[in-house]
Predict the structure.
Amino acid sequence: MTDNFKMVAKTLFGFEEILAEELRNLGAANVLQGVRSVAFEGDKGFMYKANLCLRSAIKIIKPIHSFSVHNENELYNKIYAIDWSVYLSVEATFSIDATVNSEVFTHSLYVSQKVKDAIVDKFRATDGKRPNVDVKFPDVRINIHIDREHCDISLDSSGRSLHHRGYRTATNIAPINEVLAAGLLLLSGWEGQCDFLDPMCGSGTILTEAAMIACNIPANINRKEFAFEKWDDFDPELFEKIVTISLNKSKEFHHRIVGYDKAPSAVRKALDNVKNANLTEYISIERKNFFDTEKYTENHLHMVFNPPYGERLDLDMETFYAAIGNTLKQKYPGTDAWFITSNLEALKFVGLRPSRKIKVFNSHLESRLVKYVMYEGSKKAKYQIQE
């Protein structure tokens, strides 16, 4: 336990609780929820496992220093005072990622520049030469977060956002982020317990994430690299051991995962992405218009989808959302139907009252994840129709 250190997992608004639960299930210590983040403790192997397995995290950072700061000179001096040789060699490349919430520090790019100057000046003073900046493929990514008068400095162990899973090579208009898709599935209670349908599957992201959850496949098993692989203390044998152990925890899935889309191009892209994720045996995708379909199974069905919001596609939203409600009501008994939308006005035309409504964000769009419980048989009277 003495090898444990503090880490912070960044996430999307509304996903803090499910991320904390994921961390506890993985074995993290001292899990503490924040806003768009969850702090936790673990050792180096757990840092590898968190990057590999967490579905609702977008980044794992390792805090290394924190201090109060009141002006740019103080920022420079305190950054300069750090022994950067512990984290960065003079031959290595680095980049700075800054976020600021301060009346004094108002421009993140200026803060990044100031921090960069302090680091390279320190190396010039101690080594006579300086490491270079590489914003695209650095050896070390340094994260600076200034909140009012408090500055946190962390090492970014992930690199590119963890939504870059590695399986998606083709997308359509308005594709859903992989972390968002996984988080919505977890919020919906999806664990692989029954048949599944995404009736507007686009490039297949929700389907792929659903299959990975159902089979307990590590979220980022198809990702090509993590930032920690370039760190001086990277342990490739330990990482391979973590990968092997995580893969050995995968399980069989005995239900069906089905996707529909009415666009032939979307179906082709979805099939390609599912193949890239090595999940073809679990997922079937058909060219169908959801409004012309009916429930494909006699068993309970779990449905999660991302319909158009009217942001980028030219549709009559009132008619479209009314058709969603009618199709669910008439053709999908015994179904828990979940979908996300930022078009809160259009939701009124579904004609059913949601049993759950959860505030989330799709990129910059404030949205709702809504649930409609469609009863079957004699329980049809329980449909909750809006007055």
About this structure: DSSP finds ten helices and 15 strands in the chain. The two ends are 58 Å apart (CA to CA).
